[in-house]
Design brief:
The complex is a heterodimer. Chain A is an all-beta fold. Chain A is built from one helix and 34 strands. The termini of chain A are far apart. By secondary structure, chain B is mainly beta. Chain B is about 15% helix and about 65% strand. Chain B is elongated. Chain B starts with a helix and ends with a strand. The chains are: A mainly beta, B mainly beta.
């Protein structure tokens, strides 16, 4: 019997899981975060059992630690951050209490690529909370000097791919604040020339993976402003020809979010007014050229965010009107094609984060 | 969840009673029928990625069955219950169906097609619960080899089943391997 118990498992050892990675979607109305396992090749979503996992009130932004063990959610309704741990086998999340206080109305989270510090943009208190991340437990500890004052009403922040700079969008000031991150300490030093004036009614921005350009969507003018990034200082300089229209026939309106392809070749602008996606190619100078087939139709209503999958062949679009995530494949010519029935939620998605 | 479990248990009691009724009809119509009781080790490699796990799960546990192998010549009926466990996942199957038995010398070959219910439980701890369970249709096709040691006792050298279950809104196709001891009542 002992021999059998040792040999029988070997007989059944056939079958292995398709390679996959995890994605997290914050659901504002459900006060929780839904976890998905995403197939590497097809981008098919498999919902993790137990989803949505409870967070605080009105989660607005979600991000995950590079170790894949911790997930952080900004709870806009109660001014704090939920820290959740991820089970490596089941993918299930469980919250570690107590929650960590932020400033007022945290709107956006970002983690440096080393997973050392977490940054939170507090929209109502107009400051940036900074936390040191314990690499073993994931516990957040606010660093000395935090929160750091920034421009009025920041709505989005992003740590640059190199981890050297932090950029903060303040739409009311039509500005992007740029900070150099003190390595090892996580503190912020304003970049010379910051804040940088961007377009009218800026709604979102992104930085290409090579850290050459910043793209800022301007909602009411339906344009995209492009800035060259001085890699040594982090300073922004608007390129000639910027801003670029998201449409040639007024068919793409109210751009609300933007994503750049990891290869740096294409840019996609999500238009909330027209429920579609403007498709651009990016020139070597950062100049944008609308693709002939642009725009691509979005399969949801009330789209709010767009991001690339860790497999750059796919793009995800979250829609609050239809409460779903749509999946698009990226063709070699840069055009997008809707490839799946959208994953639907019972509540509106506010943010998504995809792990490698 | 408790009420669902009670419903589940009631269904299996019904299945088991059907089995006993069929066996009993044989008992009174003829002589004492042969009844085999089996208990042994079970192993399955479960398709847990179908509901979000990172990898297939290897589970170990028990398999037990009660079989009337010769209700009509070589055709009989068997009821099987199995439970397989890992740190995160537990899988139960309760199955009933016909079995065909072929015997030569000390060797007995059998094949069966079983139907019933499966249940998967996943240990996911949150503030309000410790596990999530799902029940659904289950079926198994397979067979095995018994080797008679004495007139009453045999060793089930191997029992291999292809088990199909529907839990958590997805389907799982799994190989189940079992081995153990058979005690034969009423064997002539």
């Amino acid at each position: 019997m002992l021999m059998l118990s040792l040999t029988l498992p070997a007989i059944t050892s056939c079958g292995s899981a398709a390679p996959s990675h995890l994605g997290y979607v914050a659901l504002r109305g459900a006060n929780g975060v839904t976890a998905y396992r995403i197939n590497n090749q097809s981008a098919a979503f498999t919902r993790i059992l137990g989803s949505p996992f409870p967070t605080g009130v009105s989660p607005a932004s979600v991000c995950a630690h590079p170790s894949k063990r911790f997930v952080y959610v900004a709870n806009q309704g109660e001014n704090d951050i939920s820290h959740l741990t991820a089970d490596s086998q089941t993918g299930a999340l469980s919250e570690v209490l107590p929650r960590v206080h932020t400033g007022i109305f945290p709107a956006s989270l970002g983690i440096d690529s080393g997973g050392t510090f977490l940054y939170a943009a507090n929209e109502a208190s107009s400051n940036i909370s900074i936390y040191a991340i314990n690499s073993g437990s994931g516990v957040l500890t606010e660093i000395a000097g935090s929160p750091f004052v920034t421009g009025t009403n920041p709505v989005k922040l992003q740590v640059s791919p190199s981890g050297k700079f932090l950029y903060v969008l303040t739409p009311n000031l039509r500005s992007v604040y740029a900070y150099a991150i003190t390595q090892g300490a996580g503190t912020l030093q304003p970049v010379a020339g910051s804040p940088f004036t961007v377009g009218t009614s800026p709604s979102s921005f992104t930085i290409d993976s090579a850290e050459h350009f910043m793209f800022v969507t301007n909602a009411f003018t339906s344009t995209v402003s492009v800035f060259a990034i001085t890699q040594s200082t982090g300073a922004l300089t608007q390129i000639p020809g910027s801003p670029f229209a998201t449409t040639t026939a007024a068919t793409s309106t109210l751009p609300i979010d933007v994503a750049a392809s990891p290869s740096g070749g294409f840019l996609y602008v999500l238009n909330s007014g027209s429920n579609n996606i403007s498709e651009f190619s990016i020139g070597s100078t950062g100049a944008l050229t609308l693709l002939t087939a642009s725009p691509a139709s979005s399969s949801g209503t009330g789209p709010v965010f767009i991001l690339f999958d860790s497999n750059p062949k796919f793009v995800f679009v979250g829609s609050q009107g239809s409460n779903n995530i749509s999946v698009f494949s990226v063709n070699t010519d840069g055009t997008l094609a809707n490839v799946q029935t959208p994953s639907t939620f019972g509540a509106s998605p506010s943010s998504m984060f995809v792990l490698p | 969840m408790q009420s669902r479990t009670r419903i589940n248990t009631a269904r299996f009691v019904q299945l088991f009673c059907c089995f006993l009724a069929l066996s009993s009809s044989c008992l009174f119509a003829q002589k004492l029928p042969e009844i085999d009781l089996y208990g042994g080790y079970s192993h399955i490699r479960f398709n847990s990625p179908s509901f979000g796990f990172s990898n297939y799960s290897s589970l170990n546990g028990y398999s037990a069955s009660i079989t009337a192998p010769h209700l009509y010549e070589q055709l009989g009926l068997t009821f099987n219950a199995s439970g397989d466990y890992s740190s995160k996942l537990t899988v139960y199957n309760f199955l009933l169906g016909p079995q065909f038995t072929f015997e030569r010398g000390r060797i007995r070959l059998f094949g069966n097609a079983l139907f019933g219910k499966g249940e998967a439980k996943v240990q996911i701890k949150t503030a309000t619960r410790n596990e999530i369970a799902s029940q659904g249709f289950a079926a198994a096709v397979g067979g095995g080899v018994d080797i008679n040691i004495t007139r009453r006792i045999a060793v089930r050298a191997i029992d291999i089943d292809y088990v199909h279950t529907k839990t958590f809104g997805s389907t799982q196709n799994t190989m189940r391997i079992s081995a153990g001891v058979v005690y034969q009542f009423g064997r002539r």
